[in-house]
Fold each of these.
Amino acid sequence: MSADSARPILCPTDFSAEAGHALRWGGELALRLSRPLVALYADRFLPPPHFTARQIDILVEELDQSRTVARQALVDQAGRMIAPAVATEPVVVQDLAVPAIIRLAAERNAEMIVMGSHGHSALDRIMLGSVTERVLRLADRPVLAVKLSAEKDPAAFPEIRTILCPVDLGEDARPALLLAARLATAFAAELQVLHVAEAAPDPDVERAAREALCAWVPDTARTSCRLHEVVRPGKPAEEILLAAQESHAELIVLPTRHKLFQDVTVLGATVARITRHASCAVLAVPVV
C-alpha cells in the first residue's frame, strides 16, 4: 500500500441527518478513491456543574458510559451510511469539535475532510454553520461541505455527472483542478473548467480568455477525464453559482485562499459566498 492510498477521508459527525449525509458522501469518496475512512465524534463530555467529592466515582463511571454510548452510536451511523467494503475506523475524542477535527486531520494526514453543512436558516446563509465554517477557515487540506435538502434521504448519494471547477489561471489553482480531474475520473463525470472574465461582454475578450484558459489547463487533466473549458463574463461568485445551476453540477471544486484579517483567518468573499449559497456540494481546496 502506498503512502497516499493510506491517507484517510475524515468525516466528523454530530449524529444529525446532515452529518449522516456527509458520511454517505465520505464513504462513496473513500470507495471510489480506494481510501480508508475515519469517522469522528468529538464531545467534551462535561460533568454536571455541581457535584460532591463522594460523587466523583459515579461521575467517572457515567462519563465512561457516555463515551461508550457515543462510540456505539458512531459505529451504528457509519454502518448505515458507509459501504462494508470501505475500511472504517470510528474515533471518539473528548474535545471541542473544531480543534479535534483539525488535530486528527493532521495526525492522520487526512486527504480531505467531509462535513455536513446545515445551511437551512437565513442566519446560516449569512454565516455558514459555525463548525463547518471554522474548519473551512482553519484546515490546511481540502474540505468538502455537503448540504442535505429537506426532502432528501440522508442515505441517498447523488449520481455525480458534472463537476464544476472555477479557476483564475493562477499557478496555485492547479491543485484544485487536478483534484477535480481525479474525482471526475473516479465518478466518470464531465469536468467543466470555468474561468470568469471580469469584464463587460466582448467577443474578443472572451476569445482571448478562452485561449488563455485552454493553454493553462495541463494535458494530464485534459487526458484523464471528459473535460471542456467554459468562459463567462461577469462577477465571479454570481457566474460560478449560475454556471453550477445551469449545468446541474453535483459538485463544485474551487481553490481557497485564506486571508489574515486582524490576526483571524477568513475565507475570501467569493469562496464564502459560493459555499453558503450553492445548492450542491462544495469542495474547497486551500492554496498552500
Amino acid sequence: MERRKFIQHAGLAGILATGIAPAVRAESPAIRWRLASSFPKTLDTIYGAAETFSAKVKEMSGGKFEISVHPGGELMPPFGVVDGVQQGTVECAHTAPYYFFGKDETFAMDCAIPFGLNSRQMTAWCYDGNGFSLFREFYKNYNIVNFPMGNTGAQMGGWYRNDIKTLEDIKGLKMRIGGFGGKVLERIGGVPQNIPGGEIYQALEKGTIDATEWVGPYDDQKLGFQKVVKNYMYPAWWEGGPQLVLYVNSKAFDGLSAENKAIIQAASSYAHVEMQAKYDARNP
C-alpha cells in the first residue's frame, strides 16, 4: 500500500474509532414569507414596489429568504391587511396607512394629510427626523414593525363626471377619496367613499360614485378612468406626498436573525427610493 493511501485510511480509522464525525457547517433553513398588498397587480408603480422589495430580499439573502407578493383581494381584502399582519395571518403587507384612519387617525400621519408634507419632506421626517421612531411606538399597539416603502409624490385632484366650478358643485358629490381628505370633503358637502384601487373603475362605470382620485396620469390611465369620465383636475391638496409603508408582524420580525432584519430594512429603503423615482419619471 502506498504511504499516502495508508495515512488516509489510518486517519479515517482513527476518526471512526473515537466516534467523532467531521464537523459539517449547518445551512440556515430557508425562510418563506407572504406579503399582502392593498393594490392591484396592474400597477407596476405602487404594486411594483412590493415586487422590488421581494426581489431585493431574495438577492441579498442568496435565495435563502423569499417573500411572495399577493395583490389586493388574493389573500385578504385590500383594506384588511392591517388586521392580517396584526393577527399573523401574513408576515407582512404593503399599503397606504391612511386607509386605516378609521381605526385611529394617527394612521393618516404616516401617509398624507390635507396640506401636509411633500414627498421629500416626508422622507426627511421619517429618516432624519423623529417620524420613524414615533411610528415605531404607535405600531406596537398593532403588533407591527413599520418601514417606509414608497411615495407617489404630489397627486392629481381626480376625475369628475361633471365640471367643478364652485363649492356648490361639491354638495352631494359622491367621491372616492382616500384617507383624511374625505373628512374635509364631508365638511364642504361631499360624500366620501373609501374604495380600493382595483374596484374604482367599476364604481365609476356603474354610477355608484360621481368622482374619484387615485394618483396621477400614469396609474389613472392604466385603471381606465378616462374611458368613463372626462374632467381631470389638479392638484390634490389632500395628498402632497403620500407615503406607502411596509408592515411586518412583530413576532415574525423578532424571529429573524440580525442579518435578515438588516436585509428587510435595506430592501424596503431601496424600494422606497425606486418607487419615488418611478412616479417622478412617469408623471413628469
Amino acid sequence: MSVINVIDRIFGSRYVLYLVLIIALIYPLIFPIGIPIQISSRTLAVYNYIQHLKPGCHVYMELYYEVAARGELEPNAIALIKQLFDKGCKIVFVSTMSTGPLIFSLLKSSAPDVFANKTYGVDYVFLGYVSGGEAAVASLAKSIKGTVTVDNYGNPVDKLSLLKEVDKATDFDLAIIVSSGTDTFNYYVRQWYTPYGTPLLFVALSVIAPSIEPFVSAKQAIGMLVGQRSAAEYELLVGRKGLGIASMDSQSLSHFVILIFIIVGNIVYWSKRLEAKKAKGGGR
C-alpha cells in the first residue's frame, strides 16, 4: 500500500476529522496556549487610558448582561478589573438588570485570583440589582446613597468605607458599562456623560458594536472593547490568561486543523488522480 493510500485512509475518515477538531477546540479552553495575536490600536488606547488614571482612583462598573453573554463580556470585565485593582483603584459594581447578582457571583468565581487580596467594602462594593432602567441610572448619577439604602448583601451603604468616598457621578474617574444591550449605553451617555462629564468606557458584544461606534467617534466615550478578540488582547496586556485568550487559541487551532485537512485532502486527491492517469496511459 502506497503512502498516499495510507494517508487517504487516515485523513479520509470524517470521524478522524471530528476527533482532531474536538481536541483542537477543547484543549486550549482548558489549557490556554497564548498564541501571539496583534494588539489593536483601539484596545491599546483603552489600556493606556486606564494606566494613566491616578493610583487609588474610583471606578463605577455596570454589569448589564445575561448568562448567555458571559463568553464575550466577562473576560473583558475581568481583565479590566485586574488592571484597576493592580493600580489600587476602587470599584463600585452595580447592575440595572435583574440577573446582576448572579452575573457578579459568576464573575467572582471565575477570577478568585483577581479578588483574592481585596477587601469588600473598602476596595470594592456590589450594590446589587437596582430596578428602574434609565430612571435608576439617572438617580445613581445624582446620589448612590439617595438611591439605595443597602448593598446586595444587606449591608447599609452608609456604613461601607468605599461609599463614604464616592456618592455621585462626578466622584468617579471612570464609568465602565459592560452591556449586552444597546439601550444601556444610551442611558449612560444621557445621564452620566452629558450632564456630569463622567468618562465612559463601553464593553459590548461584537454584534452591537456598530450601534455604539458613533458614541466613541463623537468622544462621548473614551473607547470600547468588543467581543472575545478584545478580551484576548486585553488579557495579554494585563498578563492574565483567561477565557479570551483560550477562545482565540481554540479558534486559531481549529482553523489550523481544518487548513491541514484541506491541504492534505488536495494532495491525496491530485496524487491519486495522477496515479490513475499514469495507470491508464500504461495500459495503452
